[in-house]
Amino acid sequence: MLKKERMNRILEKTELDQLLLSDPYALFYLLGEWFYPGERFLGFLIRRNAKPVLFINSLFHAEENDETETVYYSDTDDVTGIVGNYTDSSKILGVDKILPARFLIPMMDRQIASSFELGSEAVDLTRAVKDEEEIELMRISSKINDQAMEQMKGLIHEGVTEKEAASKIMDIYLSLGAEGFSFDPIVAFGKNAADPHHMPDDTVIKEGNAVLFDVGCRYRSYCSDMTRTFFYKKGPSEEAERIYNLVRSANEEAEKMLKPGVPLCDVDKKARDIISQGGYGEYFTHRLGHFIGTEDHEYGDVSQANTRKTEAGNIHSIEPGIYFPEILGCRIEDLVLITENGYEVLNQYPHDIEIIG
Amino acid sequence: MLKKERMNRILEKTELDQLLLSDPYALFYLLGEWFYPGERFLGFLIRRNAKPVLFINSLFHAEENDETETVYYSDTDDVTGIVGNYTDSSKILGVDKILPARFLIPMMDRQIASSFELGSEAVDLTRAVKDEEEIELMRISSKINDQAMEQMKGLIHEGVTEKEAASKIMDIYLSLGAEGFSFDPIVAFGKNAADPHHMPDDTVIKEGNAVLFDVGCRYRSYCSDMTRTFFYKKGPSEEAERIYNLVRSANEEAEKMLKPGVPLCDVDKKARDIISQGGYGEYFTHRLGHFIGTEDHEYGDVSQANTRKTEAGNIHSIEPGIYFPEILGCRIEDLVLITENGYEVLNQYPHDIEIIG
Lengths: 357, 357
Fold this sequence. Notes:
Helix content of chain A is 30%, strand content 23%. Chain A has helices at 4-12, 24-31, 79-84, 101-109, 121-127, 132-152, 162-167, 169-175, 238-256, 264-277; strands at 18-21, 42-47, 50-57, 69-73, 93-95, 116-118, 180-181, 186-189, 210-215, 217-219, 222-223, 226-232, 289-291, 298-302, 315-318, 321-324, 328-331, 334-338, 343-345, 355-356. In chain A, strand 5 (93-95), helix 4 (101-109) and strand 6 form a beta-alpha-beta unit.
């Protein structure tokens, strides 16, 4: 079913009169349906003052709806020509950022528009402001993630490797009603937790290790994403505890300043200043957060470079970390929603130091 | 390390003097290293008579090698301009099929080449002819898949759902030394097996059901892919057995004709004719096979439309199926290698009718 209100919000944000979207995430956003075109062309042409048109290979099927024209093509059809029948060749065509060269170059060669511009920012900015339906699904997805984190602790026992623990996480999510991962889970023990990009390997748990879970699931297509850092069988050393509490305070103080109209770079700065003043600034090596929705990483981030202001309906992560290899690698991540008057943290799992195992 | 022989084979297959590759699979093929650029630009410029150049965000790291120039850029750099410093703007630039519009359009606006063409077919055709190193890894990957299939049968017991069975497959692969899936496994019971695109759901196994596993793993980046159809607790009906044996014979007879120089459409036709003559032609609804390597589906297929001839070193699937909802959905798939004189089937798991559970 065409989500007309979302389409109109997109057209309000651009001066282009025709936009050809091919990103399955954008199509799901506008049509409520997932398409998996593989290497085949998939397009959704939205136009000012005309019905949108869905172009789809006849191997697939789209739900019928009166407000969209659906054009099926076959593998032997000239798809560029078919799309060209619907574009206004005297006007610019906005294409989305992911349109692959194998479709774009033939469209240019055939001049199906006067010129071609990147047109997907209007979609991205619209998707960054979640509506009520989306917010509710994001809340449920994060709630499942909270419950899953409680169970994941139980995966850590003597002799277990990161990979073994990670391989059990899918079952936890499925049993809680999620559809799957929003990204491959990170399970990192000890020094591995000091590499923010570490992927689970054959490292075996040892007493005193930090245990970092950076995990998320999908619920009715909407993602969760949370990180907690535990300690196995023994609490942190004095310095490790100081590091943990700095990360915690960077997370909580950054969250507290959230409300509509705050420059995203100021939020990053708040967390970064706390960690820097604690003496670990150089070990916080990434941005504070990223936007999220049906994709784990969506357009928009909480970084020093992003001067854009928060808006009610934004959902993004707050995930400060300190990666100090000899002592502790630690990250604490929540998802937050910007509300009309402030913010709502979607994750309820506590931030306290917790000894497990 | 630059795989120079592979690069030279690519340049022999094209008239273009400069090719900008951005597909991580192509880069792995040429550099033996995986890059995960996410939304950031990744490029490998190969040139006739000049060193190739790797463009990579400084957040990532590439192994040093003397035969490649590596250019790091940062998030605030003008990456289009940097690439333009290395291209010959008086010549055509070949780009690969997946280069997203967000990079291609700025390169065109800045005229870093005289014009832009799709240039990745030369890479795809080169990748379709596996070298000895690749063949050995593909053999191991399929051997693991054979062993895994033996264990997967044990997942089917009273009360189990497709999703539950599918959720255990990763553990089997990891325990056998694979790195992960080559694609999300398909487990389909009964009528669900008659939908070739079915994904595991909450369907519970019933006595007499067909049990279809379409599964594959990755070993040192190389994929396996095999399908077998079993019967749960009770053998097939007479008609189901006839269908099974037709599929089996389509598979085996198509395999027997493989050697260098056979048009791929003829291989498809062989299998299709057998199924048609058996009376089920309209229920074999897809092509006979696809090429495979580091990607589960690579360029090249075994279909009615592909008149290209097999070459020694090709590896592709042979996967006839009959999807006859009331009686049986069944597919039997192997990977095959075209050798100098004939073929080698990479899967050893038998084709016999097998009752499990």
